[in-house]
Amino acid sequence: MDTAVHLDGITKRFPGVVANDDVDLAVERGTVHALLGENGAGKTTLMNVLYGLYEPTSGRVLVDGAERRFDSPRDAIDAGIGMIHQHFMLVDPMTVTENITLGNEPTKWGGLAVDRAAARDAVVDLSERYGFDVDPDARIEDVSVGEQQRVEILKALYRGADVLILDEPTAVLTPQEVEELFEVLEELTAQGKTIIFITHKLGEAMRAADEITVLRDGRNVGTVEADGTNREDLAELMVGREVLLDVDRPPAETGDVVAAASNLAVEDDRGVRVVDDVSFDVREGEVFGIAGVDGNGQSELIEALTGLTSPEAGRIEFLGEDITGSSRRQRIESGMAYIPQDRQERGLVMNFDLVENALLGSQHSPELGPNGRIDWPATRDHAESIIEEYDVRPPNPDSTSESLSGGNQQKFIVGREFSREPELVVAAHPTRGVDVGSIEFIHERLLELRKEGVAIVLISSKLEEVQGLSDRLAVMYEGEFIDVVDPAGTTEEELGLLMAGERPDEDAPDQAGQSAAHTESTDAPNGGEHA
Amino acid sequence: MSEASEETEPASETEFLERYSMRVMTAGVTVAAVLALLVGGWLFPDTIVGTFADVISSENTLSAALRLSVPIAFAALGGIFSEKSGVINIGLEGLLIISAFTAIYVTEVTGGVWIGFGGGVLASTLLALLFAIVTIEFRADQIIAGLAVWLIALGLAPFASQVIYGGPNTPTVPTPGAISVPVLADIPFFGALFSASPSVYLLFVAVGLSWYVFERTTFGRWVRASGENPKALDTAGVSVARVRYAAVLLSGVLAGMGGSALSLDLGQFTGNGPTMVNGKGFIAIVAYLFGNYNPIGAFLSTMLFAGLDAMQTVLQLQGIGIPRQLIRITPFVVVIIVLALVGRTRIPEAAGEHYESGEE
Q1: Where are its TM segments located (chain B) (predicted)?
Q2: Facing residue for A91 by CB, picked from B218, B224, B358
Q3: What domains, with CATH codes, occur in chain B?
Q4: Global model pTM greater than 0.80
C-alpha cells in the first residue's frame, strides 16, 4: 500500500480537553478517505495538526513516508498538503484568479508587478485540467457557494497540493452541488490526488469515500472499507456503546403532562427546515429521551422548546399554557431549567467568577435580584451552596469558570439549574466531555429529580445514556421523529438502524403490525402505553 | 457558465450604479455648479456671480487648493494603506503634527530643508511604529490607540517647541521654494499645476504610486486581503502581522511627508490650540472614505474640500464673507451623508479587528 499521509499516535491536548487521543491514521494515495465522527469528536483538530495549524502534543506526522514537522500552514503547503476549510478562506471583493494566486502571485519586472495574464492562464489551465467550471474573472462575492468551493480546491491545487483535506465540504452545498463535488473528487483521485474528507454524515462517507475512519471522543475507533460496511455499523461506531453505567432506575410514576409540543417546525439560519412536524409530550416524573446522530435537528428542537429560537410553525405548551411566543425569561420564571449543550458558549460566562455565574438566569428572581438590584451576599451564598451540594472543585466561589475543568463546569451548571426547583428540565448532552465520576453524579441527580416528579427532556448522542435514563425514547433523523420506542425493550442494533434513518416500516414486512404501532405513536405520542 | 454570467451582469450593473451613484451625483453636481457659475459670471461680470466665477477660474484658487491639499492628501494615502490592511488609523492627525514640528526643528538645526523633511518623515514613522506595536502586537483597541497617537503628538510638539524655542511657535526657516516647469507653467489656470512647491509634485507621484501598488503589486493584494479576510491571507502562507506592520509604517511615512510639507512650505510650525494641522488628519479620513479607499478618489475629494477652503479664503479677500467655520464643516457633512444615508463606501470587512494566527 502506497501511503500518502500517515499520522502516528497523534495526541493533542488543550487546557482541560483532550481533543485527539493517540490517533493513528493512514491514507492511501489516490483514494478518498472519509474522517467520520460527531461534532466535537476531534476530526477538525486532527486535520489542523496535519495542516500545521496546531502542533501535536505528541505523535508523528509522516508524508510520503518521511517524518515532517509543520510549524505553520506554509510548511504543510510546501509538503503538498492543502486544506479546504469549512468556512471558505476567500477574499470576497477579489476575483477568482486573485484569490487562487493569493500569496503565490506570478510576477514580472523583477517582482514589481503581478503578472496578471500569467495568473489568469494558470487558473484557466488548472480548471481545464481537472474539468472545473469556474470563471477566472468573476468576483468571489458574485459566484455561487459551489463555485467558491471549487475556487478553494483550485487554490490548493495551484499551490501544488497532492493531498487535499476537505472539512465538512457538503455542509453549505445544495444536493446538486454535493453531487458535483463528488464528481470533482473522483476526477481528482483519478489523476492521483489523495483526498481526506471530514464529515459527520454517514451517507456521504459511504457515497464518496474508499475508506472510512471513525473518530469518537478524540480516538480512532475503527477504519473500514466503504464497500465492506453498512450504515448501521458506522452509526454504532460513531455513537459507541461503552459499558453501560449501571443506573438504578425504578419504574416511572408518571403524572400529568408538564410540557407538550405539537407539529413543531424550526428553520435554521439558511432557511432550511431542520425540525419538521415534531410532536411529543413529557409528564411529571418521566424522562423523555431524544436520540440521534448529531445534526439531525435535536439542537434546534431544544432551542425552540427553551425559547432560544422561535419555531416556524407549531405550538408549545408548558403547565397547561401556550408558551409558543413567550420569552426565555418567562420560561425560566415559570420553572423551565436548561442545561445547554455548549456549556462554555451558553452555560457560563467564562471569565466571570462562580458567584457571578450563579446569578445567571436568576437576575430577576426575588431572592437574588429583588427590585432590579443584585443581592450579592445572597448570590454568594447561593454559589457556595451549589459548590457544596454538587461537589464543584476547587470549592472557591471566587475562581473564574474558565479555571474549572469541564466536568466541574458542568456540575456547576447542573447545580445552578436544578436549584431553581424546576418543573421541567431540558438537558442537552449533560455529560459530554465530562469525566466518568461526574457522569455518574449527574445521572443520579437527574433520576432524583425524576423521582420528585420533575419532567425531563434529555438529548444525548450517547446511546447508552439516553437508553439507560429514558422512560420513552424518540429517535430523531433529518428533523423528524422517526420513531418513539420503549428503550428497555429495544436493542442497540434496532436503535442504530433508526438513527441511520431506516424507518421501522420500511424493512421487515413481517413486523408490519408492530411498525404501525410505532408510526402511530410518532403521530400522537401521548403515550405512557409504550413505557 | 455563459448563462450564469448573463444572469449576473444586470445585477452587477445595478450594483455598480448603487455603489457609485452618490459619488457620480456629487461629482456631477459640483461640475454643474461650477459651470453654471462660470457661465453666469461671463454673462453678468459685475454681479456677485461674476465674482464667484472670477474666484473659481483664478489660478490662485487652484494653486491654493493644491497647497492646502498636500498634507490632507498625503495623510489620506497613509490612511488608505493602514485601513485597507485592517488597522484603522485615526491617529493621522497626530502623525501630521509630529512630522510638521520635527521637520522645522531638524531644518533649523541642520539648515537643510530636505534633511528636515526626512526628519519629519522619520518622526511620523516612529510614532506609527509605536501605534503598530500597540495595536498589532498587544492587540490594543485601534480607535483608542489612534486617539492616543493624536493626543501624544498634540501635547508633545508644542511642548517641545516651548522647551526649545520658548514658545509654541517655532522660528521661521527657509522654504524650499516653488518649482516652475517652463512653458507649461504659462498655461492659463492649469499652469498652477506646473508652478508649485516640490511637495505638490511629490504628492502627484505618491498618488500614482499608491494606486499602482494597490492595483498591480503583490504587496497591494496582500494588504487588501489582510483587511478583508486576514485568515485567507494567513492560510495562503503570508504573515498578516507583517503585512499590517508594513502598511501602518507606510501610513506613517506618507503622513510624515504630508506633515513635513505642511510646515516647510510655510517655513514655520505654529503650535497654538489645535496646532497648524488643525484637523487636517481628520479631514484626510473623510477624504479617503469619500474616495472609497481609492488613492485617486481620495486625492480628488481632497481637492474638492481644499478647493472650497481656498475659495473661501479668496472670497474673504474680495469682501464676500462666508464664515470659515461653515466651509470647514463641509467635508464632515459630506461624509455623514455619504456614509449614513447612502452607505456605499465599502469599509474593509476586517478593519478594526485583531488577528492572531492559529486562532480558531
Answers
A1: 24-44, 64-81, 88-107, 113-136, 143-167, 187-214, 243-262, 282-305, 326-343
A2: B224
A3: 18-40+47-342 (1.10.3470)
A4: no
